[in-house]
């Protein structure tokens, strides 16, 4: 296995040690595996907390800081955090105004956050949850686990974080997060599988001329496999899937994320962004804001996802609000 | 089953999970995220440590509650809450304070564990999950319970194995494998497989 | 070949189209292949320009903006830009106070920039050049091409850009850049080779249990090959090579960059940063500032480089100065 | 050599470079950055276009100056300035305005091209560069010049081939291959190889 690691089972803790060394404005509890804003808890401010399996960096630890998350609780690689850990993070950011949990829709994440919310309630902390399920590669259904949470998580975290920073109440913060989620759709394509440190080998084999369509961010295979095609056609397929699945009305404004899954170089992501922006323009959407880079990753997977969020004036205002985190920074 | 036997069961599960960790992870790699074996192994290693460091519990139920609580706080993912809640429910369903329980009582408790799993995860039979091994195992255990623990445990293990194998042909509707839709067919469910290990361990220690 | 591209020979231009679509505060000339700050040229301000082969993104285009570069001229993948192109960029940022070229020490880059500087002189534009040659994996010698320019380029660009923004004269800007270069050392290790779109296959084969030590950022093999080792030992080897090659005196402050070569996930880079910071601390250096991420890349190569720059108060002040570019942003 | 022959030579180089582009890139992949064939092919494609679109130049020298100027503005990397400067120097060293040049005059011009390459790149023989094929080629050309262009060109091509092969054993001291130090031994230099193509093309069109 080709990785810069010492002991596969210590990767998350050792990476957190690096985060602690690198970012003096974060408080990192390596044992509990939580990353907290140095000034948390802020009395009267709603705490915004997110978490999930590791391996998606900079999500979530890289988004802790002014104007975004108050804390992140990274689980083991691709494994949701455990209730105790989430509770500890919840307590660390509780300023008396309640805490909002941002939870990606995976069975494990949902159950562990649910248990943590119950434990927090026992401690007198009010928790609101925002469930993110933006990945339209998966069909929505009450009979299944439903859609996965992927790229839109970043937008939900940015918008809720900005609203909480501005002093909004927990209900309003959670409602804004849910609104962003409802108005967002994502779709991903992979060119290679990723390798978890524990497994030590790629999750699946993909011939040199094939791609996986509709993958998630956990190294799982996608919905189907196809022959590799030019970037332009992949972009078209992606945009079509997104616009086909959610009513992102023509004439509206959008925040667009062209996201690398970890192993795809920026030059390809920009090339894709050019294609995606042109296609969305043709469909009548105005791209008001964009982000191109590796933000919601799947370890070393070569691949990309596109997220489109229909954005009204409030969402754009919150998106533009100052943010100072390791991975996202503007206005301060 | 007395406290010592309960502990042996848990120890046998821990040993089986450790031995089969790579296999479980490999199954999870095909239709999930390649961590099921790693997760359970981390959890049961912690359980084994917790049980051996703590004073001998007075009641059989306490062994299982402790097991479940440890799993919840160490495993994460889907398996942590599901197995954790199951063992906590099993422990709590046993007669409070009893230092021995009979097969019928254990059958009731196992059924309570299944109910807890289904309440938490909302999976029904045929969804290609833990439930597909756990359900048949409990039914077989209950049916054979009057023939004694050893017989019931062996029946449960066999039924779990059969349920596990039946997941191969299923289209997943819960858990990560559900994202694959029809592509999940042809792969054995990792969680159903670890459930079989749990019941096989019971058969082994009661033989 | 597994890449999101259309036509291998059009990758750079198509990626520039994406850059143009994504960043409205940059002016992109796709035909000429130059990226320029929207407000350039600023009368009386020294223009700071950098360029080199593509494939190292976000270097250099991602560092164009307030407080850093005025323009970048990306060549084809791994191929230095041509004199006409560099001249066009030089003219685009000439505000009458001269232009500083930041040139990485590669035969091709040096010659093409040299020719462009001569053409610019013919047009009455004074050009100063800062040569960056920080890669201590290569031995320094007047008989060879000398050391390569790698990670320190980012620090040179940041510091010169800040100084030019503050109104300094061309000589002072160039001198500061050269000082950063002299006080910087870098070293890189790769776990895989990279694949250029034109070649379509990896530049070299590397068995699953081996690493290349002392690689550059152009997919070339390194100085030697060794069995893969734990991250801790790789970090130690890297820090040793850096401290052994340049006198970065104990007791001084440093800017440290732990940089991914494109295919290495952030979780590994943070893990490495933890190791590197601890080792530098033991050696008596105080890490005053750090950057962890993919900044000076080699397409999809899995690997990392460490750059240490001994930083005095002036360098730190210029490092901290406001910057607003696609890939580096703070203070504004 | 008249203007038409000069153009044929450049056309033959362009054809050879196009045909051998993958091979050149492959050589550059081993000890460089895998772009030499791509770079030269882009350059000579542009040269061919420039020469065919422009009006027939009046002088032989103009063909080479135009070739060099186009290479400088299209190739980039090390090869662009080096080959570009070489052809510009060759063109400028030929008698101004002459529509035909003899072998001796061409020999002088080729020597001027070599000098320009060495002035720009500072490489000396043995550094594993273009110079190691170009140097022997010019020397052989000069020596055979009085026997006529065809003979001189053939001698130059043979010497270039020998010089090219000799680079295999050299440790690179200039260009990207120098970063590899001793690991550059055992690989033929891409630039010396393209230089051989240049002289082989001359031999082919003068045969
Ligand atoms: N809703 C559910 N009910 C019952 N079992 C489930 C459910 N969702 C997932 N599982 C089981 O969990 C197993 C996966 O566990 P694990 O890999 O540890 O967690 P994760 O899917 O979070 O990575 C699956 O194979 C499946 O048997
Ligand atoms: N200083 C030099 N003098 C002469 N030839 C050189 C010099 N440096 C490099 N070369 C030649 O250039 C060739 C590489 O050209 P190319 O791959 O196009 O450029 P780059 O090295 O910039 O990628 C080498 O094989 C070598 O023959
Ligand atoms: Mg998991
Ligand atoms: Mg799993
Ligand atoms: Mg090159
Ligand atoms: Mg080259």
From TrEMBL, chains A, C:
<keyword id="KW-0418">Kinase</keyword>
<dbReference type="InterPro" id="IPR012736">
    <property type="entry name" value="DhaK_1"/>
</dbReference>
<keyword id="KW-0808">Transferase</keyword>
<feature type="domain" description="DhaK">
    <location>
        <begin position="7"/>
        <end position="330"/>
    </location>
</feature>
<dbReference type="GO" id="GO:0047324">
    <property type="term" value="F:phosphoenolpyruvate-glycerone phosphotransferase activity"/>
</dbReference>
<dbReference type="InterPro" id="IPR004006">
    <property type="entry name" value="DhaK_dom"/>
</dbReference>
<dbReference type="InterPro" id="IPR050861">
    <property type="entry name" value="Dihydroxyacetone_Kinase"/>
</dbReference>
<protein>
    <submittedName>
        <fullName>Dihydroxyacetone kinase subunit DhaK</fullName>
        <ecNumber>2.7.1.121</ecNumber>
    </submittedName>
</protein>
<dbReference type="Pfam" id="PF02733">
    <property type="entry name" value="Dak1"/>
</dbReference>
Automatic annotation (TrEMBL), chains B, D:
<feature type="domain" description="DhaL">
    <location>
        <begin position="4"/>
        <end position="204"/>
    </location>
</feature>
<dbReference type="GO" id="GO:0016301">
    <property type="term" value="F:kinase activity"/>
</dbReference>
<dbReference type="InterPro" id="IPR036117">
    <property type="entry name" value="DhaL_dom_sf"/>
</dbReference>
<dbReference type="InterPro" id="IPR004007">
    <property type="entry name" value="DhaL_dom"/>
</dbReference>
<dbReference type="InterPro" id="IPR012737">
    <property type="entry name" value="DhaK_L_YcgS"/>
</dbReference>
<keyword id="KW-0418">Kinase</keyword>
<dbReference type="InterPro" id="IPR050861">
    <property type="entry name" value="Dihydroxyacetone_Kinase"/>
</dbReference>
<protein>
    <submittedName>
        <fullName>Dihydroxyacetone kinase subunit DhaL</fullName>
    </submittedName>
</protein>
<dbReference type="Pfam" id="PF02734">
    <property type="entry name" value="Dak2"/>
</dbReference>
<keyword id="KW-0808">Transferase</keyword>
């Amino acid at each position: 296995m080709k990785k810069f690691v010492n002991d596969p089972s210590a990767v998350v803790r050792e990476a957190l040690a690096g985060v602690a060394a690198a970012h003096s404005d974060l408080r990192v509890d390596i044992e509990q595996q939580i990353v907290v804003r140095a000034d948390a808890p802020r009395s009267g401010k709603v705490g915004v907390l997110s978490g999930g399996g590791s391996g998606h960096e900079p999500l979530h630890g890289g988004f802790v800081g002014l104007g975004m998350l108050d804390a992140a609780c990274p689980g083991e690689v691709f494994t949701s955090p455990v209730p105790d850990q989430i509770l500890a993070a919840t307590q660390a950011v509780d300023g008396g105004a309640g805490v909002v949990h941002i939870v990606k829709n995976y069975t494990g994440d949902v159950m562990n956050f649910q248990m943590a919310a119950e434990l927090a309630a026992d401690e007198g902390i009010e928790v609101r949850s925002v469930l993110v399920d933006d990945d339209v590669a998966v069909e929505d259904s009450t009979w299944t686990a439903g859609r996965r949470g992927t790229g839109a998580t970043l937008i939900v975290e940015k918008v809720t974080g900005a609203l909480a920073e501005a002093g909004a109440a927990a209900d309003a913060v959670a409602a804004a997060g849910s609104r962003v989620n409802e108005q967002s759709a994502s779709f991903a394509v992979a060119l290679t599988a990723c390798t978890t440190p524990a497994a030590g080998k790629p999750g699946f084999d993909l011939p040199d001329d094939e791609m996986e369509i509709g993958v998630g961010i956990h190294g799982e295979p996608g919905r189907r496999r196809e022959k590799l095609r030019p970037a332009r056609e992949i972009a078209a397929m992606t945009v079509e899937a997104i616009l086909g699945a959610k009513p992102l009305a023509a004439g509206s404004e959008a925040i667009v994320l062209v996201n690398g899954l970890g192993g795809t170089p920026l030059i390809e992501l920009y090339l894709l962004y050019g294609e995606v922006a042109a296609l969305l323009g043709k469909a009548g959407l105005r791209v008001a804001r964009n982000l191109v880079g590796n933000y919601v990753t799947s370890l070393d997977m070569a691949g990309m996802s596109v997220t489109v969020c229909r954005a009204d004036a409030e969402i754009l205002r919150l998106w533009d609000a100052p943010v100072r985190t390791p991975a996202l920074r503007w206005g301060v | 089953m007395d406290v010592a036997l309960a502990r042996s069961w848990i120890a046998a599960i821990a040993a089986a999970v450790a031995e089969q960790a790579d296999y479980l992870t490999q199954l999870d790699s095909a239709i999930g995220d390649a961590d099921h074996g790693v997760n359970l192994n981390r959890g049961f290693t912690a359980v084994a440590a917790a049980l051996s460091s703590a004073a001998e519990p007075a009641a059989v139920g306490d062994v299982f509650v402790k097991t479940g609580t440890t799993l919840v706080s160490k495993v994460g993912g889907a398996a942590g809450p599901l197995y954790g809640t199951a063992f906590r429910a099993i422990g709590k369903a046993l007669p409070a304070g009893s230092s021995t329980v009979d097969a019928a009582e254990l059958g009731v408790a196992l059924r309570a564990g299944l109910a807890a799993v289904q309440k938490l995860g909302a999976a029904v039979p045929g969804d290609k999950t833990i439930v597909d091994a756990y359900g048949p195992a409990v039914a077989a255990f209950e049916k054979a319970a009057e023939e004694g623990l050893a017989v019931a445990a062996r029946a449960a293990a066999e039924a779990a194995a059969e349920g596990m194998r039946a997941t191969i042909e299923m289209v997943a509707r819960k858990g990560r494998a559900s994202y694959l839709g029809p592509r999940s067919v042809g792969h054995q469910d990792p969680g159903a497989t670890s459930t079989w290990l749990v019941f096989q361990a019971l058969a082994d220690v009661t033989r």
